[in-house]
Amino acid sequence: GGGDGGGMAALRGGDATAAGLRLGYVCGVLPTARLAAFERVLFRATRGNMFMRSATIDQLVRDPKTEELQHKAVFLIFFSGQQSFARMAKIADAFGAHRYNYPAKYSKRAALLSQALTRLDELSHVIDHVVARKEALLSSLAARHGAWRTHLARQKGLYNALNLWNYDLTRKVLIAEAWCPASMIEETQEALRRATSRSGAHVPSILNVLETDEAPPTYFRVNKVTSAFQEIIDTYGVPRYGEINPAAFTVITFPFLFGVMFGDVGHGSMVTAFALYLCVNETKMLALSARLRDDIITMAVRGRYMLLLMGIFSIYCGVLYNDVFGLMADFFGTSWTETPPRHGGPRELKAHGMVYPFGIDPGWHRSANELSFGNSYKMKLSIVLGVAQMLLGLGISLVNALAARNALDVWCDFVPQAIFMLSIFGYLVFCIFYKWSIDWVAEERVAPSLITLLISFFMSPGEVPAEARLYAGQERVQVLLLLLAFVAVPWMLLAKPLLLRRRHLARAGYKNVACRPTARDDPAAARGLLRSTRDHDTDEDSVSVASSNNGKAYAEEFDFSEIMVHQVIHSIEYVLGCVSNTASYLRLWALSLAHKQLSMVFWEMVMLPPLQSCRAGGSSWRCAVPLFFGFAVWVVLTTAIICCMEMLSAFLHALRLHWVEFQNKFYKGDGKKFVPFSFQTMVENMDDEE
User: Which long-range contacts (CB under 8 A, 24 or more apart) does 656-660 make?
Assistant: First the structure.
């Protein structure tokens, strides 16, 4: 026989012959793989004069020689003659079998079995005791594992920080240089005094504020509401020290632009309800995200207040659009009278000068030109919002330049950029509002085409087609604006490099060494030199750079060609970017249109047929069953596709508008983030690494 099995770990060879009997026997254990060959060799060696029985052992057996777990089988061979016994023993040993001494008498066999069972019982008790002891020890270690990990992380971070200190051999003191927020100097001194008192040190720690030309790291105080918006900005780049933080504006502009694309009262209410649940149960949700360590859940929990603002602005824009789950709502009553169907929808106002209180009049929903009106309105609104946000970015660049006292950036960057932007796209926004402010139907005139106006603005200066005329004197105004735009381009291109070259040549004769007059010798000259040096040091394109040494600055070689190439690239990027960025804001219109149309498709394809069958009459079951399943499918599609996929799409587009179209007008993003020494941060980082 043969097969899989197992048993005791090792078997010793042995023999037995029954006294007074003519038959002898050999028993033992050998690997299962060798059992068939072993049986064939025995049959041939004894010419069939033997009787063999075998059985597989159900467990793996540890081999006494190799200490490996193997599949083995037990065998028992009966034979006659002493010579046959010697032959059997040699063959069994050759096949690696381990023979057992099996007594011939029943009493001896019973005693041997009793001893084996007793020993197995003792070993079982020992094993159970060891397992229980091991479980108790591991439970005790597991209870202290978190405290040990925290202690290890604290000690590791502490010694890493101490390794950054310098040892002064002459004064026998440790010196550490670190950054500290200016508003926390007194708190730091108080902490040092407490540490000195607790440690029992005889010499107090001394804190000195050093003057340095090295650029400090950037530090912003954030809370649980603003932290998500700050992470969006830091993902693009950490603000430079002294630079305006875009997160202050992103808190409002980001959810608002998202709402413009996702505007719907129903869908916005679903997002708001989900965000409110996360905010109300924030402690439980934070613990859940820490336990699961799922990226999607963690982002949703950390950005719960961002989701709340996104939902609120979606509701606001949905009221503005008068959209509820893709359908036109009628909150205040339409201002238009209903006309017979053959006239194609609303035509006259109920009262002269009557206006819908807020948002789009629901009467447009029943008009033949609903789609064209909605597209025209949202497309112009996208241009207005885009130009407004880009002008906000230019305004921030002006504030940055004024804060740095960099007159060169003000007059050579901001002024020509603002002139170029306002001359073309600012004028386009003016034309949009001017067109909206006139009732062309009352004046019995065809509303002018802004696309035709913009084409003629560039292609035929001084000429305005009849279908693009807005006001008298339009030709002269457009020619003047076009000239200003053309003047701004070389101004932006050449002014800054030439002025920097002139400044460098004026200082080249001094070989970077200047004799500073004292205030006693020439106060006016001293003030002028200090002012000139200050302006020079704050210029990001100047020839002086700050080293890592405290208060030491070294001159850098002036390369006019490099500065010129950089300015050419910057100017071309801005001019082309004004066009592409303005067109990029049309995604607000495109996403809003896609959102509305997709919502209408779901309603008309899923919910409308069951409602029409109910309206047609019949039994309640014929109405309730399809309505139930239709509503279930509509909820699943609305939640999965619109409130998840469509929301993610609008989020990414709003993110792109802030990173590319808004921040490239002023944001450098090459700062260094201030990371304070924190034991909590070290423990969290250890968890993230695992």
Answer: 656/584, 657/257, 657/386, 657/389, 657/584, 657/585, 657/587, 658/232, 658/246, 658/250, 658/253, 658/254, 658/257, 659/236, 660/581, 660/584
Q: Which residues pair with 244 in a beta bridge?
A: none
Task: Give, as one character, the DSSP assignment of residue 364.
Answer: G
Q: State how far the alpha carbon of 671 is from the alpha carbons of 344, 535, 567, in Å.
A: 60, 21, 22
Going by the DSSP 8-state scheme, the letter that residue 360 receives in this structure is S
On whether the CB atoms of residues 270 and 639 are closer than 8 A, the answer is: yes
The whole-angstrom separation of Cα 595 and Cα 587 is 12
Give CA torsion, residues 517, 518, 520, 526, to 10 deg.
Answer: 70
Contact yes or no for 38/66 (Cβ under 8 A): no
Distance CA 125, CA 119 (A): 10
Residues for the chain: how many in total?
Answer: 690
Tokens, residue 453? 């106006």
Beta bridge partners of 28: 75, 99
* Nearest-angstrom CA–CA distance, 472 and 339: 37
Asked whether 16 and 24 are in contact (CB, 8 A), the reply is: yes
Q: Which of 211, 177, 166 is nearest to 550 (CA)?
A: 211
| 237 or 612, higher pLDDT | 237
Burial 623-632 (b: 16+ CB within 10 A, else e): beeebeebee
3-state secondary structure 136-149: HHHHHHHHHHHHHH
Give the pLDDT of residue 272.
96
Cα–Cα separations (whole angstroms), residue 85 to 54, 80, 101, 467 = 18, 8, 13, 121
Q: Do 653 and 587 form a contact (C-beta atoms < 8 A)? A: yes
Q: CA 484 to CA 479: how far, in whole Å?
A: 9
The sign of the CA dihedral 47, 50, 53, 57 is: negative
Query: d(Cα 246, Cα 248) in Å, to the nearest integer?
Result: 5
Asked if 386 and 585 count as a contact pair (C-beta separation under 8 A), the reply is yes
Residue with tokens 């509701």: 315
Q: Please tell me the predicted confidence (pLDDT) of residue 618.
A: 63
End-to-end alpha carbon distance in the chain: 52
Phi, psi of 598 (to 5 degrees): -65, -40
CA distance 247 to 131: 57
265-281 pLDDT per residue, tens: 999 999 999 999 999 99
Q: What one-character-per-residue DSSP string does 45-74 give?
A: HTTT--EEEEEE-SS-EE-TTT--EE-EEE
- Specify the 3-state DSSP secondary structure of 420: helix
Q: Is 17 helix (H, G, I), strand (E, B) or coil?
A: strand
* CA 193 distance to own-chain centroid: 41
What count of other Cβ atoms lies within 10 Å of the Cβ of residue 289? Answer: 18
Confidence check: pLDDT of 553 > 70: no
450-483 confidence digits (pLDDT tens): 999 999 999 998 899 999 999 999 999 999 999 9
pLDDT per residue as tens digits for the range 327-353: 888 888 788 776 654 545 446 777 777
Q: Alpha helix (H) ranges present in 509-642?
A: 523-538, 560-584, 587-602, 608-616, 620-637
- Calculate the alpha carbon distances from 448 to 119, 368, 574 in Å: 105, 21, 30
Amino acid (one-letter) located at 611: L
One-character DSSP codes across 238-284: PPPTTSPPTHHHHHHHHHHHHHHHH--HHHHHHHHHHHHHHHHTHHH
3-state secondary structure of 328: strand
Q: How many helices (H) and strands (E) does the chain have?
A: 23, 13
Task: Quote the pTM value.
Answer: 0.75
If you write DSSP's letter for every residue of 196-219 in order, what string do you get?
HHHHT-SS-----PPP--SPPPB-
